Structures are given as C-alpha cells and as structure tokens.
Amino acid sequence: MTGAAEPAPPPPGGVLWSLAGDVRGLLMLPAALTLQVAHPAVGAGVDDHSVFRTDPWGRGERSLRSLQLWVYGGEAAAEEGRRLRRLHRTIQGTDTRGRRYHALTPANYAWVHATGFPVYQHAARYLVRPLTGAQERALYGEWLQVGRILGIHDRDMPQTIEEFWPYYRKMLAEEVEATVVVRELVAADAPVPPPDRGPLWLRLCLKALWPALLPPLARFRSFITVGLMPPDARQAIGLDWTPRQERRLRRFGAVVRRIVPLLPERLRYLPLARSARAEWRAGLRRPAGVG
Question: I need a labelling partner for 290 at 20 to 30 A (CA). Which of 80, 109, 193, 224 fits?
C-alpha cells in the first residue's frame, strides 16, 4: 500500500503536534505505558517478551522514536506502523487470567493505542493547560489517525469522544489490574541500570554517581507515573494517591508551565518534532505555486 492509500498522520499544527514532541510529553509517557500494561494481555506480553528489564534505556529510546514517527514522520509514519505489526506477530501466550492472548488481537492492540488519549487529556491540565472542548475533540480525531497508522481498523476504535468514554470506563471496570509489570513500573525501588546512551564521559559519570542518583530519580518516576495517570484509572488499578501528593504535583506542574514555554525551540522540542515543525513552517512561507 503506497501513495494516497496510506493512512494519513495527524495534521501539522494540530493539538497532537503541540503535545507529542514537546519535552513535557516525556513526563506523560510513563503514565500511558503503565496504563497499557494494566491490561492483563498487554501486561503478560510485556512481561514475557519485552526487554524493558534488561535494556530499559534502549527500549525507551525505540518506543519514543516510534511515537514521534507516528506523529511527525510524514510518509515514514505508515511504514513505522507496519514495522510494529510485524514485530508483534509472534507475541502470544497466556495472560494472568488464564486466557490465551496475541499482541495483535484487535481488542488488545486497540487498548494500547487508546490509553494515549486520556493520559494526554489529563496530564495537559497540569503540565500545559486544560484543553478546551474543541481541542479535546481535535485531539481525539488526531489520535484516531494515529490508530490508523498503527493498522487498527475504525471498527475496533470508538469513533467519537461520546463513544470513547463508555468504552474506557468499561475497560477500567472489567479489565485493568495491577499486573506484575504495573507494580514494577510504579515501584520507587525498582533496580534500573545506569544510562548506556550518550557521550562516553557522560556515561562514565552517571555510572559512578548512579548509586546516589537512582533513589531520587526512581521516586520521581513513580510519583509522576501515578500522578499523571487519570484518577479513575489510578483507582481502578489500585494505585494510592494522597492529597499531599496531589498538592506536590500541582506545584510541580505550575513550575513546568512557567519554565518550558520560555525555552528555545531546540530545547523545548524533541529532534524529530523540531525538524518536522521547521519543515512545515518553511513550507508555509513558500511562494504560491512552489511545490
């Protein structure tokens, strides 16, 4: 499938273009990933087949690049979706409830995609600003386009916000649970090796300092993962969240909202997003008739 038959990525300048490549999006990802693996089948697939324990930095880098391609990859977006489907073809097994699963079973694959919308919608209130009703609808429409990039059929995705929320609440009531992977992702004492990416001098410094750096970083990761998860999802999974933690999250969000918009483009946006945004702006400035 090529050319006009390819599913179109989200439109340049849309709500998702503003959120997905902003550095604040990095803070939102752990909550979405944790909500994904709260599904018994998805959690079992990650538990059985993922390298997130042995190669967390590599897996994180690959996942982030993949997400960026869905939104900013242009013609490469659909190919990335096909690559992911090929990667998941052999992932199957038995979930925590004794049910056979396959990663590409529509209900399972659609849940992995679905979790992004409620997390973006909720986390934006703290880190960016609350979305208006029109922005929420635009974001949902753009997220549906991401689903098509991933090869999910429209019949397997709620097509409107009005259809999405009953589906989401049903999943929270009937499916999600504190899987083994969820418990590891929210644990403040989970072992994580030092980063193995970046310049040699930086890796050596981090390796030397890692025993002192890991405990506060792990506590922050746990805090931001649970805090930026929608409250109804948090409750359905059984994750604790106190009023004191909520006040801390609001203070943290206020600082982030004030500082990030002041950053230059090269620091505020991730590389692929930054390049796509620059190309789009350059295209808008071209004289009429120029291809």
Answer: 80
Q: b/e string for 176-207 if b means 16 or more Cβ within 10 A? A: beebebbbbbbeeeeeeebbeeeeeeeeeebe
Signed CA dihedral, 65, 66, 68, 69: sign only: positive
Q: What does the pLDDT read at residue 54? A: 86
**Could you tell me if 31 and 228 are in contact, meaning their C-beta atoms sit under 8 angstroms apart?**
yes
Over residues 217-245, the pLDDT tens digits come to: 999 999 999 999 999 999 999 999 999 99
Three-state DSSP state, 25:
helix
What are the φ/ψ torsions at residue 124 (nearest 5 degrees)? Answer: -60, -30
Q: Provide the pLDDT confidence category of residue 145 given band limits of 50, 70 and 90.
A: very high
Q: Which residues pair with 94 in a beta bridge?
A: 100
d(CA 174, CA 236): 9
> What pLDDT is recorded for position 3?
46
- Residues sharing a CB contact under 8 Å with residue 154, sequence separation 6 or more, in sequence order: 144, 148
Indicate the pTM of the whole model: 0.91
The encoded tokens of residue 169 equal 């609440």
CB 192 within 8 A of CB 218: yes
Cα distances (Å, whole numbers) of residue 131 to 12, 14, 235, 256, 281: 18, 13, 23, 17, 24
What single-letter DSSP state applies at residue 192? -
Question: What is d(CA 189, CA 226) in angstroms, rounded to the nearest whole number?
Answer: 15
| Residue 22 φ/ψ, nearest 5 degrees | -70, 145
> Does position 291 have pLDDT exceeding 80, yes or no?
no
Read off the tokens for 45: 């697939």
Burial of 60 (0-12, 13-18, 19+ CB in 10 A): middle
Nearest to 106 by CA among 123, 122, 88: 88
Q: Give which of 253, 237, 126, 114 is closest to 172, Cα–Cα.
A: 237
